[in-house]
Specification:
homodimer, alpha/beta, inorganic pyrophosphatase (n-terminal core), Diaminopimelate Epimerase, Chain A, domain 1, six-stranded parallel β-sheet, six-stranded mixed β-sheet
Amino acid sequence: MNNRLEAVAGQLWGESEGKTFHIFGHIQPDGDALGSQLALWHALRVTGHEAIPVLIDPLPPTYQFLPGREAFVPWQTVGAVERAIVLDCTGWDRLGPAADLAQSATVVVNVDHHRSNNNFGHFNYVDQNAAAAGELVFRLLQAAQVPIQPATATCLYTAIATDTGSFRYQNTTPGALRVAAELLDLGADLATIIQNVYQTVSLPSLRLLGDALQTLQLFYGGRLAILTVSKQLRQESGATEQDVEGIVNYARSVQGCEVGALLHEKDDGTVKVSLRSREKVDVSQLAARFGGGGHLRAAGYAVLGGMARAQAELVAEVGKYLDGHP
Amino acid sequence: MNNRLEAVAGQLWGESEGKTFHIFGHIQPDGDALGSQLALWHALRVTGHEAIPVLIDPLPPTYQFLPGREAFVPWQTVGAVERAIVLDCTGWDRLGPAADLAQSATVVVNVDHHRSNNNFGHFNYVDQNAAAAGELVFRLLQAAQVPIQPATATCLYTAIATDTGSFRYQNTTPGALRVAAELLDLGADLATIIQNVYQTVSLPSLRLLGDALQTLQLFYGGRLAILTVSKQLRQESGATEQDVEGIVNYARSVQGCEVGALLHEKDDGTVKVSLRSREKVDVSQLAARFGGGGHLRAAGYAVLGGMARAQAELVAEVGKYLDGHP
């Protein structure tokens, strides 16, 4: 591990003076990708390197507070890439349309915290025990003794806080909490992060939540809770498809509920089913029966045939799992 | 500070063998009071002392997972109190009907993190820089070299996590994050804490949220957002008055909103107005004009005369503040 860490730090700060780094994240970027990209950009600039953070999809409004955001460049405008740093990506597919561009680099540095990372870089710093890519970037800066300025600290804190759901998800570790503490000491602007990430919701999104909660249905004595978002509901609210995503957690949150589900009718008529479970049901198994997948407590699948049929099939299938079989 | 810390640790573990401690929190107990009480109870028992954690109001369902909860005793059943430890209370008034009982103790130890604490104990360990009373209890255990078992760690983590809103509130400090990290190392059961505290909502409470979101009204181009909960709405939902409280944060969360308000018609017809602001308006000042009070960003007041009048008066008054006067 430390060998990798030092090899990667060496690539970035050791022998690479005068080179330009392009810093990539993944499609549909989240706080970890964006925060890690900008933190590394700050750190490379502070140490006299050229660096360009690259956006594949547009910067979401939530992250338009990140210090350095104006440096982001859309991938379409990037010419040749000499040295690519790829952050928070399990493999090339996570770069979508920009994969070829990044892959064309002479040297590829891969920094990631996902178990399924396939070590696609020439240099790989992958640690699945890290809560976020931002935690790995922090360790890189420490290893290279790069000073961490308040703006950098804010980016890294955003990365770690968002990927752990503000230290609520299972990937929260003592190490992540200690890095967060150091970042606050270094001047991370917690108030701004919290206000933008957790205390701001678009009006359409809030209206959609209110409407979706009206659809709450309980089955099996409350052990299954279902919320539905029809195409019409979403369109009338003006919310985006992304706004729909978090709503499934409200289903699972009902006291006494084991499985929470959200049925979301997409514009093309497909029904996207998101599943969350509390402690017994393996929803990745359940989703696999409908051709989907995911994790033990969070999974999903998509089916055709309309909302009513999707719900009936889901209710029947969950019933088997609640009874302890299959 | 350290003198106080050691004096208090000495009272608890130094010269007090064979004594019984009654451990008090405040009325309407929260995670910090309850977690701190039970952590100290565990720690005193582990070190061979007699200790009794005392409840003034019933244990809320949210905290019925806390290890040691079955040791809680209602204050009405407590006879004489020799040594009282009072946690997370600014003064005697926070003990409500149990104040006289606790005050009758020969020795009172006061451990608290509120700025307004009036040092009412014979021994006082008060530090307003601590994020939670649980952080102070942790330091006491460290000072006294009391081993912290996983159950104790779970109680202390609950105390710190709840009082910081899982590290989202302004009282989040590097110190609080480091103590949290140590508690995870010591075996705090984060998954159980998160599931009970943040991922469980009563069905009536969730239904009430859905209904309340339907009432969203915006004023002044979206800078004021108002949600209302009528007596009828609350009663039909089956939610408690406590369930209503958190809803005001949804009002403030609307993008572009500076002041969020919740108007809640109580059973006796009083309208309770809760206010939250984002960065400009001092809502404590605003609330004071209606005979209420609070903090810069969170305040409230109660008025008679019905919902419509309360709303009209509020809208008019907020308008003055949004324009920068008074």
